[in-house]
Structure formats: structure tokens, C-alpha cells
Amino acid sequence: MIEVNNLTKEFGKLKVLRGITETIRENEVVCVIGPSGSGKSTFLRCINLLETPTSGEIYIDGEQINKKDVDINKIRKKLGMVFQNFNLFPHMTTLENITISPIRVNKISKAEAEKSGAELLQMVGLQDKAGVFPASLSGGQKQRAAIARALAMKPEIMLFDEPTSALDPEMVGEVLQVMKDLAHRGMTMVIVTHEMGFAKEVADRVLFMDEGMIVEQGTPEEIFGNPQNERTKNFLSKVL
Ligand code: ADP
Ligand code: MG
Predict the structure, then answer these.
(1) How far apart are CA 18 and CA 56, in angstroms?
(2) Which end of the chain is less congested by CB atoms within 10 angstroms, N or C?
(3) Do 45 and 190 touch, CB atoms closer than 8 A?
């Protein structure tokens, strides 16, 4: 579903991605772990074309997305992205946050968007928060609303960049639970996370990134139970 071939990204002289080759299959849940600054966010942002790759190719559903004349909006519709800091629109209610893009971009009727918006709010456990503004939501509620907003565009793939890192500890679980539900529904997901317990439980595969490369990848059992690479071992010894 996502195929990345020898992807590099440089910011000036800084080589942030140094040749990433990876395939993510339909329905797969892939967790990306690794030290801060290793290029995890840049990798996700390249997949979503929030960053322009320096070289290499990215294919989604067999179509190369990083070449001239590509309809970026069409590609972006396939991808939902959830960020660390929620990025909800502060002047809109929870429900409006969820319906704005389906109405404006997908040209869905307001009534229809509100109907599926209400279902999504139900799914993330915010059915009683439709009419409130983000300022009155807790961090965990905001992030669940942000997930619902991404899902409202009916993406084929969900990308998460440290979705629980900005949350107070007691709110991490409720967000991870929503993500688990999504995984069980068969959503294809790429999740950058520091939640090793979640990765162990939910990931089909774990990618360990360091210094702009995928140094090691495997099942959670392989990566957490029997890491082969010294850098993976060293990283896990600090976080587990
Ligand atoms: P991670 O998500 O693993 O912490 P990032 O992908 O955010 O890593 O960053 C990798 C490196 O790229 C870091 O050294 C960071 O400072 C640098 N970087 C990220 N974005 C930019 C940018 N827009 N301009 C310049 N340097 C950047
Ligand atoms: Mg990051």
C-alpha cells in the first residue's frame, strides 16, 4: 500500500533521511521507534508530502506521489495524519472540526457530514462533546477528536506522529484504546511512538530508526525480545 524506495531528505547540509526502503501492506500496523532526531517525523511527513523528498520514490497504491504533475490533494485524501499537538481549529466546535473538511473538500452535504461526524464522535467516545469548543476538552479528548477528524475524510492509511507524547499520563490510555480499535477494524497505520507497550501489543511490525535509516525491523517479538543490532539494543535498554 505504501512503498518507499531509497528515500532521502536533506535540509541544507543536514542529511536527515539517508536511504529508506520499506513496504507497508494493506491492514498492517507498523510502529516506528527510535531516538529523538533520528528522522521519524520527517519520514512520516515525506509520506504525506508535507516535506518534499530530496531523492527516492514513494508510491501509494502503486502510484508515485513524489513527482511533478501529481494531484497532491488527491493523495492527501488517502492519508489521515494525527500530530502530537492535536491541531484542532480553536474557533470551531468538536463536530465542526470533524465536518469542515468533508463539506469543503469532499463536497459532502452538511447533513450527511454531521451524521457521519456523530458516528465518529461515538466511536471515539465523544458523543456528548459535539457542541463544545476545543478549549474545554482535555488533552485526551482533543486527541480523540483529532483522530475522528482525520477519519472523517475516509483515509486508506492513518499516520500518527507521537499522538500521546503531549498528554498527561492518565490520558494516554484512552487515546491508545481508540487507536487499538482502529487497528482491529483493519486500518492501515504507521505510528511513531514512544509507547513500547502499545507497540508490543498492537504492531504487526516495528521499525527501529537511527540517524536517518531503518537500522532494524521485525515483529514486536523480534525487536523487543531479541534485537540484533547494537543500536537497537542500546536504545531499548534506555526506554524499556
Ligand atoms: P524525530 O522525529 O525522529 O525526532 P525529525 O524527523 O523531527 O526526528 O528530525 C530529524 C532531524 O532533522 C533533526 O536533526 C531535526 O532538527 C532536523 N529537521 C527536521 N525538520 C527540519 C526542518 N524543517 N528544517 C531543518 N532541519 C529539520
Ligand atoms: Mg518527531
Answers:
(1) 10
(2) C
(3) no
Q: How far apart are CA 167 and CA 205, in angstroms?
A: 25
ipTM greater than 0.85:
yes
The DSSP secondary structure of 149-187, one letter per residue, reads HHHTT--SEEEEESTTTTS-HHHHHHHHHHHHHHHHTT-
Residue 4: enclosing H or E segment and its boundaries? strand 2-11
* Amino acid identity at 202: V
Segment 145-157 shows an average pLDDT of 97
- The angle at the Cα of 73, spanning 69 to 79, to the nearest 5 degrees, equals 120
What is the grid cell recorded at 221?
Answer: 517479538
Kindly state the cell numbers that stand for 205: 511490525
- Which residue in 103, 102, 86 sits closest to 147, CA to CA? 86
DSSP 21: E
Instruction: From 42, 52, 239, give the residue whose CB has the most ligand 1 atoms within 8 Å, as the site to mutate.
Output: 42
Query: 75 by DSSP, 3-state: which?
Result: helix
Q: Chain-wide mean pLDDT for the chain? A: 97
Q: How far does CA 66 lie from the centroid of its chain?
A: 19
In this structure, what C-alpha cell is assigned to residue 35?
Answer: 531516538
Query: What is the DSSP secondary structure assignment for residue 227, as one 8-state letter?
Result: -
Tens of pLDDT, residue by residue over 36-52, are 999 999 999 999 999 99
CA of 155 to the centre of ligand 2 (A): 22
Phi/psi at 113 (5° precision) = -65, -40
Question: How many angstroms separate the alpha carbon of residue 51 from the centre of ligand 2?
Answer: 13
